[in-house]
Structures are given as structure tokens and as C-alpha cells.
């Protein structure tokens, strides 16, 4: 499926769709919205192949596109229905299903705790914990200063720790 | 900016994320390719007929009225050009009269003056009356 302008859209999808999906799902907590945003990103790339010309880090660029698209979606949702602004009420987890009951519980609690974080903290936490980006890379991807990325991460991880401490310590003792 | 992870953070980072549904790949790529082709086609269509499309945008509300106005302007130009073509011919025809014609006219004027009743006027005065002179001199003759 070659693009007319020579853009290898299949390669882009295969290399970046999974992390973009996880990042977007952590924002939207809705599979249909995530699919729409992902499609929006790839359609944009297909229509404007020049977007990627001169881009050094494709992943960072695509994360920025995804982040902007997700923020736009949040604003649209807020305008559409104020009651759905907080994604804590959404039930779709960004984590893979587990078999172990303790792990299921931990992942559910983690998903709920993440959903309670402000979107900007959640974005930084996601990129740091699951994309393993440095604060410099996160800063470049989200177009924020590195210190802001670090402070958002600290605020976010502290909230998660407070919320999940009992579960975490219980699991550690069991280990 | 300490980027070292504590055990709690490491535990979080080990939690596996959900996998993207496999069916999305074909669907999303198909839409992307289709949109890209539509975009390319639109751009290709726009390039040669930019002027035409702009004109049609301007003229779209009342195309017949604009066409009628254009026809009126064309008619005006045609009439104008045809009038210009005739004017040099008129100028050419209005060439200076020949000496014979002038002499004939003078003769007719003299006869007319005699018939009107310039019986008391002497021949010298008559010749003065009909000889072309500057306006100032004509005034003197009238005063006299």
C-alpha cells in the first residue's frame, strides 16, 4: 500500500501505531475515540507527507501530534458535555488484561488513579513509565521545558504512590 | 533532575499496556491512502484551472446576469471601434477646397450680396466686405 507521494505509511504504522494507541487510550479511555484520533493522525500524515520531512525523531513528532489531537478531543468533549470532562468515570483500562487476581486489582486501581490525574501529568507519566523517554525527550515531544516535564512527573507519581501505597507494600511483603 | 526509578516506579513501568486491535491496521491505512489520493486529485484539479475556479466562484450566484453584462460590454466596444474607423474617412474627405471652388463660392456670395440690396454700396466697399480680414478690421468696417 504505497502512498502516491512516496511516504511509507505502512512502515510508520507498524513502528508507531502501538505506542500512539497506548498513549491515546490513556488520555481518552475510550476505544472509539482512540481509533478516531489514530486515524486522524495517519490521514494527516498521508495527506501531508511533507510534515515528516526534516523530522529527526519520528516518534517524538508523532507523540506531539497525538498529544495535540487528544487535547483537542478533551476540549471538544468538555464543550459537548461538561459532565464527561473527567475521565475517571470512564472504564476502559489502558492495561492488558491479567490472570492473577492481585494483578487485576492492581491494574484496575492504577488505571483509576491515572484517570484522576490532570491530563498534562498523565501524559508525562505515560511517556516516562511506558515509553521510557527522558525528561528532555518528553519536553521535546510535548513542547514544554524539561523542568516542567520533571515537576509534572513528580507531582503525578507522588499522587499515584499515595493512592497505591497500600497495594504496593502488600505485594512487596508477599514477594 | 534525577531520572533513576524507584521500585514503585519500576513496578508501574512493568505493567503491560493493551495491544492495538489487529483489525485497525487495514482500516486506518485504507482510509489514509484513500484520503491521500483524494488530496492529490484535488491538487491536480486545482493547478490548471485556478483562474477558472476563481472566476466561477465569483460568477456563481448569477452567471446569466454576468454573461449578459459581458455581452453588453462587447457590444459597446464593437460600436466604439466601428465609429473610430469611419472618422478618418470623414477627415480625408474634408480636404481643403480647390481654387476653382473658392472662386465659384466668392462669385456666388457677390451675387447674393447684390441681390439682397447692397445697391448703395460702392464696389470698393463691397470688396472690403467680402474679403477675409482679421476680426479687428471687420469691427472698424461695421462701425463706419
Describe the structure.
The complex is a heterodimer of chains A (175) and B (144). Chain A is 71% helix and 0% strand. With 175 residues, chain A is mainly α. In chain A, helix 1 (9-28) crosses helix 3 (58-80). Chain A is globular, with a radius of gyration of 17 Å. In chain B, 5% of the residues are buried. The model of chain B has no long low-confidence stretch (mean pLDDT 76).
State the end-to-end CA separation of chain A: 49 Å
Q: Which term fits the overall shape of chain B?
A: rod-shaped
Order of helices and strands of chain A: HHHHHHH
- Average per-residue pLDDT of chain B, rounded, comes to 76
Q: Give the number of helices of chain A.
A: 7
Measured as a percent range, the helix fraction of chain B is over 70%
Query: What gap, in angstroms, lies between the N and C termini of chain B?
Result: 122 Å
Task: Provide a short characterization of the protein structure.
The complex is a heterodimer of chains A (175) and B (144). By secondary structure, chain A is an all-alpha fold.
Can you lay out the helices and strands and say which pair or pack?
The complex is a heterodimer of chains A (175) and B (144).
Chain A: H1 9-28, H2 31-47, H3 58-80, H4 101-116, H5 119-129, H6 135-142, H7 146-174
Helix pairs in contact in A: 1-2, 1-3, 2-3, 3-6, 4-7, 5-7, 6-7
Chain B: H1 7-14, H2 24-46, H3 50-59, H4 63-93, H5 99-116, H6 123-130, H7 135-143
Amino acid at each position: 500500500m504505497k502512498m502516491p507521494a512516496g511516504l511509507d505509511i505502512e512502515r510508520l504504522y507498524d513502528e508507531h501505531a502501538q505506542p500512539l494507541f497506548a498513549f491515546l487510550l490513556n488520555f481518552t479511555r475510550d476505544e472509539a475515540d482512540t481509533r478516531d484520533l489514530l486515524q486522524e493522525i495517519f490521514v494527516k500524515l498521508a495527506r501531508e507527507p511533507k510534515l515528516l520531512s526534516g523530522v529527526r525523531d519520528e516518534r517524538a513528532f508523532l507523540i506531539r501530534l497525538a498529544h495535540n489531537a487528544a487535547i483537542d478531543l478533551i476540549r471538544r468533549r468538555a464543550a459537548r458535555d461538561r459532565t464527561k470532562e473527567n475521565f475517571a468515570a470512564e472504564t476502559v483500562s489502558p492495561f492488558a488484561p491479567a490472570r492473577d487476581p492481585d494483578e487485576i486489582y492492581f491494574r484496575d486501581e492504577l488505571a483509576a488513579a491515572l484517570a484522576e490525574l490532570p491530563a498534562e501529568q498523565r501524559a508525562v507519566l505515560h511517556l516516562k513509565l511506558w515509553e521510557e523517554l527522558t525528561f528532555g525527550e518528553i519536553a521535546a515531544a510535548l513542547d514544554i521545558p524539561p523542568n516542567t516535564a520533571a515537576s509534572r512527573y513528580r507531582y503525578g507519581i507522588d499522587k499515584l504512590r499515595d493512592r497505591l501505597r497500600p497495594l504496593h507494600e502488600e505485594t512487596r511483603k508477599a514477594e | 533532575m534525577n531520572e533513576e526509578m524507584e521500585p514503585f516506579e519500576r513496578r508501574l513501568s512493568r505493567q503491560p499496556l493493551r495491544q492495538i486491535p489487529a483489525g485497525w491496521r487495514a482500516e486506518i491505512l485504507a482510509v489514509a491512502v484513500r484520503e491521500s489520493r483524494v488530496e492529490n486529485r484535488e491538487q491536480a484539479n486545482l493547478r490548471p484551472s485556478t483562474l477558472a475556479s476563481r472566476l466561477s466562484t465569483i460568477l456563481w450566484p448569477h452567471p446569466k446576469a454576468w454573461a449578459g453584462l459581458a455581452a453588453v460590454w462587447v457590444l459597446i466596444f464593437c460600436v466604439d471601434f466601428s465609429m473610430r474607423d469611419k472618422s478618418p474617412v470623414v477627415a480625408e474627405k474634408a480636404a481643403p477646397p480647390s481654387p476653382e471652388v473658392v472662386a465659384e463660392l466668392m462669385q456666388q456670395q457677390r451675387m447674393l450680396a447684390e441681390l439682397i440690396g447692397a445697391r448703395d454700396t460702392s464696389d470698393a466697399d463691397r470688396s472690403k466686405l467680402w474679403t477675409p480680414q482679421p476680426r479687428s478690421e471687420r469691427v472698424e468696417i461695421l462701425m463706419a
